């Protein structure tokens, strides 16, 4: 039976995940070097800008860290959920909290990255098949256009639609986790996360329209 205390539990999960997501390794490391990645390149504290400014190794580390910021909290909440057998605790809330923390980090004046890697971590936690589809779309768009921003937006926004399709075969929007909770809630949450990422890329849309967006070197 649903109880309003579960609203508070999910809210606490959201806050804790937000605080975890606010830990931005790109900012921490560059500040340690007396720099600030937010003042260089595209001024974005994420893997893409790290790739442009500091190279593939640093960018890979940033990407993995940002991905795990959402993946690990989701898996922890999911494990607790399974142990206590409660269907009203939503692990995906932890993913959204981590994404919001990455984009609006409490510790760094609410100026962080754009949430793509953390979004991918959320997808990976729920369904590795959909994660591979998302990654394939991302890589294809990147290789054909050399615009990572375009690849990020397209892959993020197509994920909910892939989730809808997978639902015909598996339970829940990201089936393999066996979430056993009302499907529309997860659909709404995933779409919300994708919309936030789209809004964060508005400056990129403008630069793409004006043909001023930087391409990556392949």
TrEMBL record:
Classification via InterPro entries: G3P_acylTferase_PlsY
EC number from the UniProt entry: 2.3.1.275
Coiled-coil ranges from the UniProt annotation: none
Membrane topology term: Multi-pass membrane protein
Catalytic activity: an acyl phosphate + sn-glycerol 3-phosphate = a 1-acyl-sn-glycero-3-phosphate + phosphate
Pfam families on file: G3P_acyltransf (PF02660)
Record keywords: Acyltransferase, Cell membrane, Lipid biosynthesis, Lipid metabolism, Membrane, Phospholipid biosynthesis, Phospholipid metabolism, Transferase, Transmembrane, Transmembrane helix
GO cellular component: plasma membrane
Major location category of this protein: membrane
Subunit organization: Probably interacts with PlsX.
NCBIfam families per UniProt: glycerol-3-phosphate 1-O-acyltransferase PlsY
Family as reported in the entry's similarity comment: Belongs to the PlsY family.
Protein known as: Glycerol-3-phosphate acyltransferase
Lineage: Bacteria, Bacillati, Mycoplasmatota, Mycoplasmoidales, Metamycoplasmataceae
Gene (UniProt): plsY
């Amino acid at each position: 039976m649903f109880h309003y205390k579960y609203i508070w539990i999910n809210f606490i999960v959201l806050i804790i995940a937000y605080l975890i997501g606010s830990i931005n390794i790109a900012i921490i490391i560059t500040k340690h070097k007396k720099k600030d990645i937010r003042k260089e390149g595209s001024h974005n504290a994420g893997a893409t800008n790290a790739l442009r400014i500091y190279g593939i190794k640093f960018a890979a580390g940033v990407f993995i860290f940002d991905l795990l910021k959402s993946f690990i909290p989701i898996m922890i909440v999911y494990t607790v959920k399974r142990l206590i057998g409660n269907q009203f605790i939503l692990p995906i809330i932890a993913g959204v909290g981590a994404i919001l923390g990455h984009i609006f980090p409490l510790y760094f004046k609410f100026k962080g990255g754009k949430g793509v890697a953390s979004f991918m971590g959320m997808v990976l936690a729920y369904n590795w098949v959909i994660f591979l589809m998302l990654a394939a779309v991302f890589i294809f768009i990147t290789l054909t256009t050399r615009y990572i921003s375009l690849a990020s937006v397209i892959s993020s926004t197509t994920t909910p639609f892939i989730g809808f399709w997978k639902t015909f075969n598996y339970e829940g929007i990201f089936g393999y986790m066996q979430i056993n909770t009302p499907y529309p809630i997860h659909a709404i949450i995933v779409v919300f996360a994708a919309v936030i990422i789209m809004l964060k890329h508005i400056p990129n849309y403008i630069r793409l329209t004006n043909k001023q967006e930087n391409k990556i070197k392949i």
